[in-house]
Specification:
By secondary structure, this protein is mainly α. 77% of the residues lie in helices and 0% in strands. Helix 2 packs antiparallel against helix 4. The chain is elongated, with a radius of gyration of 27 Å.
Length: 152
Amino acid sequence: MSADVAPTATTTAPAPRAARRTRLLGTLLTALGIVMALAGAATWGGIAQGLAQEEVVVSDNAAAFAGSPVVSPWTAWAQAEVIRTDLEEMTGGQTYAEMDREDPQRQAVATGTFLRASLITSVIAFGVALALVGIGTGFVLGGLGLRSASAG
């Protein structure tokens, strides 16, 4: 009978240790997820605040969001499209690279191209911030799942 007790004690001993490790991993994933989600939200807010400081308003000839302040990826995209259309009209469809170096509109086109690229960059940054929130949320859910699995 004592022979039966010893193997049982040794085979069940690793289970609590594995459960503790799983719980620790779940806790770490949850904490990391919270940090990532908060960082993504703060990044979104920072981008919106930076755009708001520029006090740009979507042009009246925009397909959407006309008159709205540029503080979101949607309004930034709408204004970038207005700039693209205005540049095409100004140059007859030529890009900055295709224009003659002596063209008097070349500097205005360069400025417009830079502004458009900056707005598109902000759209991408909003997307990265949103992805960070999504990944962080996934980490939180995975971590909570691991913690739950370690308890059962």
